[in-house]
Amino acid sequence: MNINRQSTSSQFSSLEAALKDFFGYDSFRPGQQQIITAAMDNRDVLVIMPTGGGKSICFQLPALLKSGITIVVSPLIALMEDQVGALVNNGIPATFLNSSLSAIEVQQRQTNILNGLIKLVYVAPERLMNHTFTPFLERMESCVGLAGWVIDEAHCVSEWGHDFRPEYRQLVKLRQRYSHIPIMALTATATQRVRQDIQTQLGLNNPFIHIASFNRPNLYYEVRGKGKNAYQEMVQLIRGVKGSGIIYCLSRKRVEQLARQLQQDGIMALPYHGGMDDQSRLDHQIRFTKDDIPVMVATIAFGMGINKPDVRFVVHYDLPRNIEAYYQESGRAGRDGELARCTLFFNLKDIKTIEWMIEQKLDPTSGEPLIGEQQIARQQLRQVIDYAQSTVCRRSVQLGYFGESFSGNCGHCDNCRYPRPVEDWTVEAQKFLSCVARCQERFGMTHIIDVLRGSRKDKVRKHGHERISTYGIGKDRSVDEWRLLGRTLIQLGLLNESTDDFATLSLNQGSWEVLRKQRPVQVSLPTLLNPVQPSNALPQEEEELLALLKTLRKQLADSQNLPPFMVFHDNSLRLMAQYRPQTLEEFKHISGVGQQKLVLYGDRFTELIHQYCQDHELTTPVTAPPKPLPRNQEISETYLDTLQLHQAGLTPIEIADKKSIRVDRVIEHLTILLEAGYAVDINTLVSLTAQTEIQQAMSITGEHYLAPVRKYLQGRYSYDDIKLVRGWVRCQQLQR
Ligand code: ADP
Ligand code: ZN
Q1: I need a labelling partner for 440 at 20 to 30 A (CA). Which of 95, 191, 295, 519 fits?
Q2: SS3 label, residue 34
């Protein structure tokens, strides 16, 4: 199966050609090309890119193009095996050395390496740094040469990160021993401290640093109230998504319970947590990866080792520990760049549970509370609550946390899509605060609300609170509404709540300003609009064909004991369903179809599509789009005329007016001129944001067809914009 392809950089006309040949992609994602170029120049490189950003190709492509062997350090056996599996499946000569292999297997692989049959070797840090491995390293260097070190998950080197591995600290010895061999370090960690630490700990030498945006535009973020209907809503969400997902819970017990409950409701779900034995954990993970079961209910023990790119939703059924954890955990969705959904279920009661857990953080030896840690944990909890209750764009809150500014409406989170109505509740706030005052600042939220609503509870009578003036003045509002107001006041700093078990409410300066009518209070109401199932149904024949393609993919995957995503990613299948390529020539334009996969699977898929088209009297809807013009092609007078007007500063509309032609003709001229390398200023035609988003979309959907690009962008940009950006991108490609 493994068609071993040896290559050198000179074999390909451009980096794109190599990318298409090995991996099947038409263009680079933002940053990849610069990183790869730096690596080809033998520079040290530090890559900071979010999960799903496309880090692997940054070191895999140079490894294939450079002479010698690239050694990849990876912290987990599972990660290593997945990556090597995917490479081998693309016909790329890669292998791993780890403790799962017998001595004979190791021997065999080492022989292959020394014989120059391998380009990428994945090794665990313990093995690499072990002195018994040194002679082999030396033989590799003398027989085939070492092209570079790659340190994947490089944050493991830092104690400030979440997965510190002492063995990673040893890696600096590589730098000392082999000072001439470049190092590439990669991580998805967003914090500044860890980034700095990686550079120092690995001894990187004037590295090329690429820090990508941590924005993940394909993820839809939402926060839903966790009321009585939460479970039903989640079930509805799972049923609607059609794909795999992870549900995170706080405790092992809740994981077990929830998995069982979902099974009873006919949803194939399995539990995963640290209390299970290794074998069942692995078994559950494999069944999830192979799409045998769609839902994994897990504690955060289900983490770094998940290499499944097509996770379509991540639900947090309990509050995450902090914003960074939330970003990383929810970020396991949609690594393939396809739309995915991240839902956080939130209720105020959960906060109490977590606060209680924080109180339990004690020093294991003395039994004293760990004050410092408790403080940090409380602050982090506060940030999570703020995120959950925020009414502004979820993305801007998350990215702001990492020091990245993101302003405006992302159009792809609940707050942007269904803005919550804001109401003036100053009068209610005054009632509430005055009730707190009249109860002498000695009670918690529940009691205050009881008094406001005129409850007959014993506790109210016992304290004589049925006789105070605020008793029963709040009957017109529900308990939930008062609670919402109370929480809002606390969050706005207009009311204090003690952190002990009593959660006593007391007034502060701000409260008095409200009571003195010096300050209004606005409350954002939960919206009723936010539907569990936003509808984005495909046309029927596309849906049907997609289902057939998925079945074929699963068959082919099972017969080779591979996870289905290694045969083709979801988005490749979707493009096939949309464009129905019936010949290999058409098929190879689909994004994700490289040389190896064309040979391995092209016939089976085109046959199926052909059969489907015949049965349903369908054709291949769109022929291939116009090929880019060769640079020296004759450009006619009228184009040059348009160019001149453009260069004189006229807008396309003005040019159209002047020449008495339609605007879309002008755009076409400009696109062709762009592609042909004439000096058309794209920045005056398409905004920078649009350029970035369109390029990113094209890296996912491919650039051959425009409709999927526009669909991916949810129609936010016009075909004209997309055409222009594509023209510009193609011209850039030709120039290299
Ligand atoms: P990371 O390691 O940063 O989480 P991966 O390297 O696993 O990300 O890449 C995420 C997904 O994006 C993979 O499915 C990969 O095949 C895909 N991908 C990477 N680069 C490109 C590209 N240039 N065009 C299309 N898809 C890409
Ligand atoms: Zn938003």
Answers
A1: 519
A2: helix
Beta bridge partners of 346: 225
Report CA(27)–ligand 1 centroid distance (Å).
11
Query: Among 15, 29, 712, which is best to mutate for testing ligand 1, by the most ligand atoms less than 8 A from CB?
Result: 29
Residues 6+ apart with CB under 8 A from 504: 441, 442, 443, 444, 497, 498
Q: Residue 324 pLDDT > 80, yes or no?
A: yes
CATH code of 538-616, in short, is: 1.10.150.80
* Ligand 1 binding pocket mutation candidate from 27, 90, 335 (most atoms within 8 A of CB): 335
CA of 429 to the centre of ligand 1 (A): 50
Report whether pLDDT(623) > 60: no
The CATH number corresponding to 422-521 among 2.60.40.4070, 1.10.10.10, 3.30.9.10, 3.40.1190.10 equals 1.10.10.10
Closest atom of ligand 1 to 565 CA is 14
**How many angstroms separate the alpha carbon of residue 25 from the centre of ligand 1?**
10
Question: Which ligand is in closest contact with the Cα of 409?
Answer: 2
Q: Whose atoms come closest to the Cα of 310: which ligand?
A: 1
Structure tokens at 45: 């490189």
Q: How many CA atoms lie within 13 A of 118 on its CB side?
A: 24
List the domain boundaries for the chain. Answer: 9-211, 219-417, 422-521, 538-616, 637-735
Ligand 1, atom nearest to 55 Cα: 3
User: What are the pocket residues of ligand 1 if the criterion is a CB atom closer than 6 Å to any ligand atom?
Assistant: 25, 28-29, 32, 49, 51-57, 309, 335-337, 569, 699-700
- CA 419 / ligand 2 centre spacing (Å): 10
Buried b (16+ CB within 10 A) or exposed e, 598-612: bebbbeebbebbeeb
For the CA of 58, the nearest atom of ligand 1: 6
Is the CATH code 3.40.50.300 the one for domain 219-417?
yes
For every residue of 526-539, DSSP letters joined together read PPS---S----PPP
| Separation CA 669–CA 661 (nearest Å) | 11
Domain 9-211 has CATH 3.40.50.1220: no
Q: Whose Cα sits closest to atom 5 in ligand 1?
A: 54
Closest C-alpha residue for ligand 1 atom 2: 55
Matching fold, domains 422-521 and 637-735:
yes
Which residues are close to ligand 2, an ion, with C-beta < 5 A? 393, 395, 410, 413, 416
More confident residue, 312 or 628: 312
Ligand with an atom nearest the CA of residue 90: 1
User: Over the stretch 452-484, which tens digit does the pLDDT of each residue have?
Assistant: 999 999 999 999 999 999 999 999 999 888 988
Amino acid at site 22:
F
Fold assignment, 637-735:
Arc Repressor Mutant, subunit A (1.10.10)
**Distance of alpha carbon 334 from alpha carbon 245, whole angstroms:** 10
* pTM, entire model: 0.72
Q: Name the H helices within 413-564.
A: 414-417, 426-438, 445-452, 458-462, 479-491, 509-515, 540-559
pLDDT tens digits, one per residue of 135-184 = 999 999 999 999 999 999 999 998 876 778 888 999 999 999 999 999 99
3-class secondary structure, 457: coil
Q: What is the DSSP string of 95-122?
A: EEE-TTS-HHHHHHHHHHHHTT--SEEE
Closest to 31 measured CA to CA, from 218, 215, 212: 212
Ligand in nearest proximity to the CA of 392: 2
